[in-house]
Amino acid sequence: MVKAGLFEEESITRRVNRENVLLLGGGRALLMQLAHPKVAAGVDEHSDFRAHPIRRLRRTIRMTMAIVFGDRETALAAARAVNLVHAKVSGTDYHALDPELLLWVHATLADTALVTYETFVQPLLPREREDFYQEFKLLGELLGLPRDRFPDTYRDFAAYLEHAMSPEGPARVDSRARELAAQILKPKLRLLPGRVMVPLNVITTGLLPQALRVQYALPWGTRQQRAFKLAVIALPKLIAITPPLIRVWPRPGRTLVMTAGGRATTS
User: Fold this and answer.
1) Which residues of 159-181 are buried (b: 16+ CB within 10 A; e: fewer)?
2) Does residue 202 have a pLDDT over 60?
3) Residue 193 has pLDDT above 60, yes or no
4) pTM over 0.90
5) Residues 108, 29 contacting (CB under 8 angstroms)
């Protein structure tokens, strides 16, 4: 018998997040998070990000999948584990449980999921976008963000993001963020040449909001724009004909369960 999760099987949240192509948005989400100086400070001073930048992305993906696709026990356990870690993350002018920082990190995850899905899978109707935003608030609440701190509607959420990345907003790429970004865009890969990251970096740069792309000083000339446009044309066609066995995980109707060793399996 499949145990019930926090999200319905037919929910827009599960429909969007089960697409494996959302992994292509991982770099975007990380760069957006680091654009907030206080988030960047917390990541840099309380993790091994400089040595192992991909680990944070892996942890974020595992946490999101556990909450969205896990049974109730798995989802709540994942949230508790993250909250215990965040409770210990603090510095001279920041704390990981600060609602401002929680909202920013939550916003990067929600916005990246929507942007990546609509870029490479299919556009969403306005009501579907609104439903996703409203449903995804649950994830933020589980991670300590008070309900009254969320923008009310998706339109309000979009306005929040626009302001946050404006010259008057809190998201400003500093020298620390640029140093950490280099670990994402040019990680040290064993047995693999650095050029294998070039196509992924083009996608990351193309998905990134223009304001942050400029602040990070990422290459975005004619060649990069042409390559990104080609990916935007080709990938949706490829995904549309990809069998569900490869295209999505977990498969519809399956519930995610975390084993004692922290591995994810389905039931």
Assistant:
1) ebbeebbeeebbbbbeeebeebb
2) yes
3) no
4) yes
5) yes
Compute the distance between CA of residue 33 and CA of residue 161 in angstroms, rounded to an integer: 12
Nearest residue to 197 (alpha-carbon basis) of 179, 218, 221, 175: 218
Do the Cβ atoms of 116 and 25 come closer than 8 Å? yes
Domain boundaries defined on the chain:
12-266
Does 252 have pLDDT greater than 70? yes
CA separation, residue 249 to residues 50, 132, 153, 210 (Å): 29, 18, 29, 30
Inter-residue contact 117 to 19 (CB < 8 Å): yes
Mean pLDDT of the chain: 92
**Distances from the Cα of 92 to the Cαs of 25, 38, 95, 187, 262, in angstroms?**
31, 10, 9, 29, 33
User: 42, 77 in Cβ contact below 8 A?
Assistant: no
Instruction: List the structure tokens of 177.
Output: 């963020």
Residues 2, 8, 23: CA angle, nearest 5 degrees: 95
Whether omega before 250 lies within 30 degrees of 0, making that bond cis, reads yes
